Sequence to fold (344 residues):
Amino acid sequence: MKAINRIIERARTSPGRIVLSEAEEPRMLQAARRATREGIARIVLVGSAAGIHEAAAREGVDLSGMEVVDPATSPLAASFAEELFALRSRKGMTLDEAKREILKPLCFANLMVRLGHADGSVAGSVYTTADVVRNAIQIIGIQPSFKLVSSFFLMMLCEPFHTLKGGLIFSDCGLVVDPDAGELAEIAMAAADSAQSLLMDEPRVAMLSFSTSGSARHAAVDKVVEATRQVRALRPHLAIDGDVQLDAAIVSEIAMRKIEHSQVQGHANVLIFPSLEAGNIGYKLAERIGGAKAIGPLLQGLKKPANDLSRGCSADDVYYVIAVTCVQAQTAAELMKTQTAPHA
Fold:
């Protein structure tokens, strides 16, 4: 079964309450209808109720089974304004400003996630990545075990011509421009967690470089080596190779020749790029020349899931991101249970 189909099936086992804040956008409405029809999510559309119903009628989208929430008339508005004021007053926000801010669908949607009225949010077909990420960090917040939010693409290699089959995690290809060694280590650990929950397989991490096992000397290589050392110290049971060139990361015969004590053995399913420049080029090469399906950019490191979309996304892309967000929400809920469970 294709990796994306496994994600869809897992989402269907416990459909999350996913909030969409660009609810008048045709692609969002079409994806919401499909997600509702196929039972992978319980969709909440946030925005002007009149505008959403008009857009749905124009697009021929049946809104049955979905909830429409208008921030201007919602009984949650007052408490949301108080929550936002409490969060942002130290940054100079007044209560009146908070009352105005929560009328914006993106802000309202993320407050729904923060306060438990929704399990995750999806936006970015209209909003910029900067808007989506900044709002998610400010309102939903970063996981206590991480210091930064990063991004990843779920790359699907499922066509008959692909010699390497299945799903891969590429990170970071959309957010952190030039991570230092500590930040690169965080990205690797977050991406390993993403692989565990979405690929439903043990993560095998390759810390990519133009060097394998010290074959080249450069500060850029040193960064990757140090990041790998930090990951091994913090997660000694995680399979990880670094520094490693791409061929040694994904071709077992080359790994055997180039890496004396490889933990990944040329079967990496998580590729960590040393910079945004390399990651962005890498995923677009895989997509445009290699024919891979790129789902994302997706966010990792947040307390609860909030995902970005490319503004050039299709309705299918939105549907897949809704499915991913559901699975991330399931994982977050499971983690919360283990953290709050009483110890024997």
In short: Residues 315-340 form the longest helix (26 residues). The chain has a mean pLDDT of 92. The chain has two domains: 3-141, 150-293.
